[in-house]
Amino acid sequence: MGSSRAVLLPGTASDEVFVASVFARPLAEAGYSLVAPPSRGVAEHVDALDAAWAGRPLVVGGVSLGAHVAASWAVRHPERCAGVLVALPAWNGPAGDAPAALAAAASAAAVEAVGVDGALTGVDGWLGDELRRAWPRYGRRLADVLREAAGSVAPTVAELGRLGVPVGVAACTDDPVHPIGTARTWVDALPRGVLRTTTLAELGADREVLGRAALDALREAGARPTGP
C-alpha cells in the first residue's frame, strides 16, 4: 500500500484505547504500525492527521465519526493517502436523522441532565463497559463533543466518488446505529471500495474482528485495478 503507518481515529466520545483494541494487532500482522492519536472532536482529529503527515503517503481511517473525518481528509489530500480503513460508517453528507446522530444528541442531553452514570443506565454488556471507561475521560467536554458529532458532516456520495485510493469498509450486519445500508452506500460510491462484515456479537467477543474485516477489505480493494 506504499505506507507502513496507519493513523486511526476514534468514534464519537470513544478513544484511542478502543481504536488500539480493534486495530493494533491486525495492523501489526499486516506490516503496519498504528498511530492512534488521543484526539477529541472533529477539529482535533483533523489536526492529528495533518500532524502525522511527514511526506510519505499514509493509511488513514477510524471508527464511525473517526472514519468520516479520515475519509474527508483523504478526499482533500489524495496525494497524502495510500488507503483508507473505514469501520462502521454512520451516514453520508449532513447527519440529519441518522441513528448515530440522534443517539449522540440524546446522549448529550442525558449527560447534562443526569451525568454519565445516569445517561448509561440500561447500557449493558461490552458496549456499556466501553462507554463507562471512555466517557469519563472527556470530563466537562463530553456533552459538547457528543453534540458536535451529532451535527457533523460526513463525506457525500459525490466526494466518495472522487476518492481513488483503495478503501476497506467494515460494518456489522446487525448494528442499528451504524446501518449496513450506509456501509453499502459508501462502497457503491467508492471507485475502489470493498465491504467486509461482522456482527455485534462477534465484536463483543473479540474487538479485532472489526479491524481484520477492514484490513481484509483494504487488501482486496488494493488488488483492484484503477480506471474503468
UniProtKB/TrEMBL annotation:
Domain of life: Bacteria
Bilayer-crossing regions: none
Gene3D superfamilies for this protein: alpha/beta hydrolase
Residue ranges of every copy of the Serine aminopeptidase S33 domain listed in the record: 42-190
Protein known as: Pimeloyl-ACP methyl ester carboxylesterase
Organism: Saccharothrix longispora
Taxonomy of the source species: Bacteria, Bacillati, Actinomycetota, Actinomycetes, Pseudonocardiales
